[in-house]
Amino acid sequence: MSNPLLHFAGLPKFNEIKPEHVGPAVDALIAEGRALVEELATSKEAPTWYNFAVKLEDHSEKLGRSWSQVGHMNAVVNSPALREAYNDNLAKLTDFYSDLSQDERLYAKFKAIQASAEFANLTPTQQKIINNEVRDFKLGGAELPAEQKARFKEVSEALSKLSSRFEENIMDNTNDFKHLVENVADLAGLPEDAIEAAKEAATADGKEGYQFSLHFPSYMPVLQYADNRALRETMYRAYATRASELSKPEWDNTSLIGDILKLKREEAQMLGFSNFAELSLATKMADSPKHVTEFLNTLAKRAKPYAQKDMHELIEYAAKLGIADMQAWDVAYVSEKLRVEKYAFSDQEVKQYFPENKVLAGLFKVTETIFGVQVRKVDAPVWHADASFYEITDSDNQPVAYFYLDLYARNHKRGGAWMDECISRRQKESGVELPVAYLTCNFSAPVGGKPALFTHDDVITMFHEFGHGLHHMLTQVDEYGVSGIKGVEWDAVELPSQFMENFCWEWDVLRHMTAHVETGAQLPRELFDKMVAAKNFQAGMQTVRQIEFSLFDMRLHGEFDPNGKQTALDLIEQVRDEVAVVRPPKWNRFPNSFSHIFAGGYAAGYYSYKWAEVLSADAYSLFEEMGVLSGEAGKRFKNEVLSKGGSRPAMESFVAFRGREPSMDALLRHNGMA
Length: 674
What we know:
Layout: H1 19-42, H2 49-76, H3 80-101, H4 104-115, H5 124-139, H6 146-176, E1 179-181, H7 192-204, E2 210-212, H8 216-225, H9 229-240, H10 254-270, H11 276-281, H12 289-320, H13 328-343, H14 347-351, H15 356-371, E3 374-378, E4 388-393, E5 399-408, E6 418-423, E7 426-428, E8 431-433, E9 436-443, H16 456-473, H17 495-501, H18 507-510, H19 525-533, H20 539-556, H21 568-579, H22 595-598, H23 608-626, H24 631-642, H25 650-658, H26 665-670
Parallel strand pairs: 5-9
Antiparallel strand pairs: 1-2, 3-4, 4-5, 6-9, 7-8
């Protein structure tokens, strides 16, 4: 029990976990799991919820909790030793879970519970878990003939390794790239804090000058503000060709894409589906790939005229700036110049009003007001000095959940922003175990002795991830299998996160979370009004870009033949012919870094962002009717959506909250495309 990964009483011991703990912990938990499976599978006792399902769930929770700590640290404090331990043990876990999902004896016992007289006496939540288990055993290959089971297991293990390698290649390429600029005159247009951060990066690397990387806080200001077009092109080219044959050969994801697609199709066909898209949708709200494609095409038809208008305006403005042949590395730069001219403010101006402490206080205030809880910082062991820990309490000051926060970009940390589960709420003999979440972002760290400053987009990202966190943390479901976000259909899981983004556009919310970094002054109403006026600036372009990615993903996992002559690059060009208004250069290798679908669980599910945006916009429209910070509307959302987790279908939760099925109208109105 000295192994911190085998510590299950209370919070993880992040200050004690080392790579050498991973193997022994995983081995011990897998051995315990295999022994339990044999005991339950060979028991002569009739299976029930308590003598069978709960015992399996108990072990699943322990193994999941231990591995979540390993996976999280691999993502935020990656090292060669930790990566090796992660990959070695990922293979063991995949093997264990493959055996578990194909065990006909366990499958038969779940079906026996489903068919028993006892089933009617279970709670709806317990029934949902049993039904999910029966479905998941089918999808895990439990009904396959013995010879196919072995191949199905090989495919699962291979996909697990390939996905991990795909993400590592992107991380390694991102960490490796450094571009040094010696003359500050070549950085004209860049904000002072971006120049300061580049100078600090160079100094930390023992160099004179200004060093830039492909981490977003370093990369994006160059694309958005640098007058030096050659510098913008250099950075864009490096970013757009990550993990491809145009970078270092050892990081090339091209062959991995082909291998992943072939294996996913084989896996789907073994289970009786025509393609992986059909398999993916078996557990989602959408009925079929055709249903998703029709949804995306309908949205594209509404959005593309606005996107074309946006692009025409941008090309005309680029010509005024002397850029007659606008390229992909010019789009963010020209867009920022145009926005400043049209709305008389810049992102950089707004950023000065959003210091980290005010943003967090504002986020917590919204949460406290509409959901009737309190948030406060408390002490706990963490994995890095940047990370912190918080407690959420109810109106009686009783704890209901906790979360870790890790906000800044750094080397050896995966890019992007995400929420993940650390501990899930569940009923135990000792009482209810409270949920704990990880909330991770990659914002600019403090520079020059000033606090960290966030762009308004960063603020929106923070609210988005916290929405995911609230879905996990405010659940009232006590059964592990559908507690929090578990069991929620993938295309509905973005509902709470996108819902929370709406508050970032409300004056009564935003003004209280601002203080100018130099003067302490609140965001002026005049500047806020300009931000709102600019809210839907290029909304058409942004919408068709998301549709482009979503259609590419759905076709790639549906009609695309990975054994045919067409490549993934050919396919995305076809999709762009139909919907895109911004055409990247032919050497752009976007698929090679599309980790959402090749390493992040969104395969044939990227459409979920737009799908859930319809749900979230319509959900928020009730707050617009009842009052943006309405405690009554907040209570309904908490009780009917957040607290229910995966205990019932997402559509039932939405209808219970809104009183009807969702409509696309609110989304189009929010995006200025009504």
